[in-house]
Write a structure and sequence with these properties.
Residues 407-647 form the EAL domain. By secondary structure, this protein is an alpha/beta fold. It has 24 helices and 19 strands.
C-alpha cells in the first residue's frame, strides 16, 4: 500500500511537470503568433497611409477600412501636431488562461505607423482574441491528455493491486483453514503447515506459515500456564489458601466420578461448630483466626495420607478426600481429628471446635448423592458430643438409610435433653459504663449428652429450630434459669435470657411465659429477654404482642445483634424495647474505623432520644473498650470484660 501511494505521487508530479512544459510551449507559440499578427497589421497600416495626406484620410473612411473591430481593438489617428483625429477603442478580453499568460509575457503591445509626409500618425493594438482562444483550447487539451496518460495507469494498477490482495488473502485464509482443520480435534497445537499441501496455495507463504506454527506452539504453553494460574487464584480460598467448592467439584468429577480406572476412598466433611458464636461474641477477625487454626489442623492430620486433598466448601465446612483409604484408615483419621480438636478447644476455652462426617466412595458415585450421605453422617456426629465424628458405613448405605436419619437422631437427642433437663447454665456480665446505668448478666446455655459430653451449642440450637423444637428448648432454658435463681438466692441480680423469634411469635409460648413469670413475679422484674433484630422484623405484630406482655409482667426487652438489618427507629419507638445491643461486627477494629465510630455514636444519640440504652458486645481489646466508652454507650460485653462462667 505504501508503494502504491508513492506511485500515485510520482504520477501526479509527472503530470504537473508535463503540464508546465506544455504551458511554456504554448505561451511561446502564442507570443510568436501575436508578434507575427502585429507585424502584419503594422505593414498593412503603413502601406495604406504611405502616400496619403491628412486631407485624404477621413475618419469615416479609416473606420470603415481599418477599424472594423475584428483586426484592431484600439485604433488612434493623430495629425502632425499630435492632436487626435480618430479614437476607436473596442477592447476584446482574452480567455482566462490566455489572459493570465499574456499578463506575464506582455505579448500584445501598442504598434505605431507614420505616412511619408509625416502628417498622419497612427497608434493601434491588434485584436488577439482568436489567438487567445486557440491558446486556451490547446492548454486544456494538453491538461486533459496528460492527465489521462498519468492517471489511467494508476486506476489500472489499483485494480490489479486489489485483485492481488484478494488473491493473497484467499490464499492465506485457505492455508489457515487447512491448519485449523488439522488441529481442531486436538487440545494441543501439534500439526505443522505441510510444505507439499501448501504448494498449491502459495509456496512463498510456506516459510512464514511454518514460523507462525512454531510461534503458536511456543505461546500455547504460556497461555495454558497463565490460565492455570488464574484458575488457581479464582478457585482458592483467601483465608486458608485451600481450594474452594468449585475446585472440589472439578477435582471430584475429573478424578473420581468420571475416571475410567476403578478407584475408592473416603470423603470427610468437617464443620466448624463455633464459627457463628465466635463471630458474634468475639468479632469476625477472631472467627477468621479460628477457621485458619482448624484448617491447619486438618491439613496436618490429612497430610499423613497419600494423595489427600483438602478444600474449604463454604464459611464453616471443609472437605477432605482420602484416596484409597479404607474404612479403618478413615476411622483413624476421625479419631485423630477429634483428639486435635479437643486439644485446641481446651487451649482456646471453647465449648467445641468442629465435627466430622465420613463416608466411603467409589468410581462413578454421583457427587450430589455422596454429599447427601456425608451430610447425614455430619448430623450424626453433631448429635453425639463436642468434636465428635461419625462414619456412615457401607452397611448403612446397603440398608438404604434415608436422608432423614440424621434429623431423626437429632430429634431423639434433643428430646432426651429436654426430658432429662441436661442443660448447663453459664453467664457473662455486661459491664455498665455509667453509674446510673442498669446492666445485667446474660445467661448462656450449654447442652449435654447422656455421657455428660457437651454438644456443639450452635449446631444444637440450629437443629432445634429446624425440627420445630426451639420453643421447647426456650422453655427448658427459662425454667432452668428461674429455678437456679431461686435456689441460689440470686433474686436481687439482673439476668438476661435469649429467646428465639419463633418462640416470641408463638401465642402458646407467650401465654405460657406470662403465667410462668407471674408465678415468680419478684424474679420477673429482674429478667431481661433478648431477641434478635432480624427475628423481630419477621412479624412486627407478634413481636409487639410479645414485648407488651414482657413489660406487663415487669420484665425488660433487649434487641440484640442490632445494626445488621435495616430496621427504622420508628419500629423501635413503636415496640419500645429497653436496650439494644450493637452487633459485634461494629466493635471489631473500632479504634481504626472512623465510619463505625460515627455510626455507633449516631445510634447512641438516637436511641437515647427514645429512652433506649445501648450496649456493645464482642469487646476483645482495651482499645475497643476505651473507644466504646468515649462514644457514650451504656455498657460493654465481651471476652475482654469477662468470659462466660458458671452461675
Amino acid at each position: 500500500m505504501a508503494s502504491f501511494k508513492k506511485l500515485i505521487l510520482l504520477q501526479f508530479f509527472s503530470w504537473l511537470v508535463f503540464s508546465l512544459l506544455g504551458v511554456l510551449f504554448f505561451a511561446s507559440s502564442f507570443d510568436a503568433a501575436v508578434s507575427k499578427a502585429q507585424q502584419s497589421a503594422q505593414s498593412m497600416v503603413t502601406q495604406y497611409i504611405h502616400d496619403k495626406t491628412i486631407a485624404d484620410v477621413t475618419p469615416e473612411h479609416i473606420q470603415t477600412a481599418l477599424a472594423d473591430g475584428k483586426v484592431f481593438s484600439t485604433f488612434i489617428v493623430r495629425d502632425f501636431n499630435g492632436e487626435t483625429i480618430l479614437n476607436i477603442n473596442q477592447p476584446r478580453s482574452l480567455p482566462i488562461l490566455s489572459s493570465l499568460i499574456e499578463s506575464n509575457i506582455n505579448a500584445v503591445r501598442p504598434q505605431f505607423s507614420v505616412n511619408q509626409a509625416k502628417d498622419i500618425k497612427i497608434e493601434f493594438v491588434i485584436n488577439a482574441q482568436s489567438q487567445g482562444q486557440m491558446l486556451q483550447q490547446a492548454m486544456l487539451l494538453t491538461f486533459a491528455v496528460t492527465a489521462l496518460l498519468a492517471f489511467i495507469p494508476i486506476f489500472y494498477m489499483r485494480t490489479i493491486y486489489r485483485r492481488l490482495i484478494r488473491n493473497v488473502s484467499t490464499t492465506v485464509a485457505d492455508a489457515v483453514d487447512v491448519y485449523i482443520t488439522r488441529n481442531q480435534n486436538s487440545t494441543n497445537i501439534d500439526s505443522e503447515f505441510d510444505t507439499e499441501e501448501m504448494q498449491s496455495l502459495g509456496a512463498d507463504l510456506t516459510p512464514s506459515f511454518k514460523r507462525l506454527a512454531h510461534f503458536l506452539k511456543s505461546k500455547e504453553h504460556d497461555i495454558k500456564s497463565a490460565a492455570q494460574s488464574i484458575k488457581q487464584e479464582a478457585y482458592k480460598d483467601v483465608i486458608t489458601g485451600l481450594g474452594n467448592r468449585n475446585m472440589f467439584v472439578e477435582y471430584y468429577e475429573h478424578n473420581i466420578e468420571a475416571v475410567a480406572k476403578k478407584t475408592f476412598g473416603s470423603l470427610a466433611m468437617i464443620r466448624c461448630s463455633e464459627l457463628q458464636i465466635i463471630n458474634q461474641t468475639r468479632g469476625y477477625q477472631k472467627g477468621d483466626e479460628y477457621i485458619k487454626a482448624v484448617s491447619d489442623i486438618i491439613k496436618h492430620v490429612s497430610g499423613t495420607y497419600t494423595g489427600s486433598q483438602v478444600f474449604r466448601l463454604n464459611s464453616s465446612d471443609f472437605a477432605v478426600i482420602l484416596p484409597n483409604a479404607p474404612s479403618k484408615d478413615a476411622e483413624l483419621f476421625g479419631e485423630t481429628l477429634q483428639a486435635r480438636f479437643t486439644q485446641f478447644q481446651q487451649n482456646q476455652e471453647l465449648s467445641s471446635v468442629a465435627n466430622t462426617g465420613i463416608v466411603p466412595y467409589e468410581t462413578g458415585k454421583p457427587l450430589g448423592e455422596l454429599l447427601s450421605v456425608v451430610d447425614n453422617a455430619m448430623s450424626m456426629a453433631q448429635s453425639k458430643q463436642a468434636n465428635a465424628w461419625h462414619m456412615q458405613r457401607e452397611s448403612d448405605l446397603m440398608n438404604n438409610v434415608g436422608a432423614g436419619f440424621g434429623n431423626q437422631n437429632w430429634r431423639k437427642v434433643i428430646s432426651e435433653v429436654i426430658s432429662s433437663k441436661r442443660v448447663a447454665l453459664m453467664m457473662q456480665n455486661i459491664m455498665p459504663v455509667g453509674k446510673n446505668t442498669k446492666a445485667y448478666a446474660e445467661i448462656q446455655a450449654r447442652f449435654k449428652t447422656e455421657e455428660s459430653q457437651m454438644l456443639p451449642t450452635a449446631s444444637f440450637l440450629a437443629m432445634a429450630e429446624k425440627l420445630d423444637m426451639a420453643i421447647d428448648i426456650d422453655r427448658l432454658i427459662i425454667d432452668s434459669s428461674l429455678e437456679l435463681i431461686k435456689t441460689r438466692n440470686l433474686t436481687e441480680k439482673y439476668f438476661g435470657i435469649n429467646v428465639t423469634a419463633s418462640s416470641a411469635h408463638s401465642d402458646q409460648f407467650v401465654i405460657w411465659l406470662e403465667r410462668r413469670l407471674l408465678k415468680d413475679a419478684n424474679i420477673a422484674s429482674k429478667l431481661v429477654f433478648e431477641v434478635s433484630e432480624f427475628g423481630l422484623q419477621q412479624n412486627i405484630k407478634a413481636s409487639k404482642r410479645f414485648i407488651d406482655m414482657i413489660h406487663r409482667v415487669g420484665a425488660r426487652i433487649t434487641v440484640e445483634r442490632f445494626g445488621v438489618g435495616l430496621t427504622s427507629f420508628k419500629f423501635f419507638r413503636d415496640l419500645k424495647p429497653d436496650f439494644i445491643k450493637m452487633d459485634a461486627s461494629y466493635t471489631r477494629g473500632l479504634e481504626e474505623d472512623k465510619n463505625n465510630q460515627y455510626f455507633m455514636r449516631l445510634m447512641v444519640d438516637l436511641a437515647h432520644r427514645i429512652g433506649v440504652n445501648v450496649f456493645a458486645e464482642g469487646v476483645e481489646t482495651q482499645e475497643e473498650k476505651h473507644i466504646v466508652e468515649t462514644l457514650c454507650l451504656d455498657g460493654v460485653q465481651g471476652y475482654y470484660i469477662e468470659k462466660p462462667k458458671e452461675i
